[in-house]
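Supplementary Note 2. Why include the ligand at all?

Several targets in our set were suspected to adopt different conformations when bound, so apo predictions alone were not considered sufficient. For every target with a known small-molecule partner we therefore ran a joint prediction. The input for zinc ion is given below.
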Amino acid sequence: MRDFSRDHRWLSINTATVRKSRGADLPLTEIIEACARRGIRAISPWRDQVAAVGLDTISTRVKAHGLELSGYCRGGMFPAVGAEGLRAARDDNRRAVDEACELRAACLVLVVGGLPGALAGQVAHKDIALARSQVRDGIAELLEYARRAQMSLAIEPLHPMYAADRACINTLEQALDVCDELDPGQPGGQASPARAALGVAVDVYHVWWDPKLRAQIERAGKHRLLAFHVCDWLTPTTDLLNDRGMMGDGVIDIPRIRGWMEGQGFAGYSEVEIFSAADWWQRDHGEVLDTCIQRHRRAV
Ligand code: ZN
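The joint prediction is reproduced in token form.
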């Protein structure tokens, strides 16, 4: 297992972590500058943050600083009502792949969606099996496009509390079942360098509780382990979405999970992804980034 205690070579910042500074929106350009100043070598930006500034500007800044993208957030949200809704989701996901390519991201992260309308509080139906089949079909279709573009797709299973509104893929096992069905030739093997992979993003916040976690990480193997997201699970948690903790402040044994990942050959970034409306988004982003660096060394 890699020693993170002496430097932050393998720290990546998911830019949602500092999307606000002292409660105010922080432009992605300033996030990039603040990361570069601290020797942070990778980020994972969100599409809305890129769009707010402009893809060309962000692409130029990223390349000027030699920053890598450990991922691009995010594609997905496949389920919809009717052919038009499905087509709109397909087109938006293709644009996400194109943007990820422009930014040279390691992968496009997929938050696959749940029941149509649930995110807006008006669910169109209660058929989660239908939603899951639309997710499967949507990923299958996008995979063809992504392969032509040489962009890897990382399915991110989300904690079951998000099954209705954000993702009806809720365990690593479920995500890997989809991978094995749609991409049967690569069970745990080595990626051919010219071939975009279909795999998973392992976010400790979503999967730490799963009794099958270790076995499913081993099942995934190096080829399917495309991203590793870290934060912590606070007790008590006061908000289902925006109360994630800083690494070391909660109950997740992050080094143990990282050890399982690296045991399979994962050698990528540990991407810090913290949504924290009442705490970290209220602090100065410099303090947040400095804390991420410290905690990466001792709690990841
Ligand atoms: Zn994540």
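The chain has one domain: 11-299. The mean pLDDT is 96. Comparable summaries for the other entries are listed in the accompanying table.
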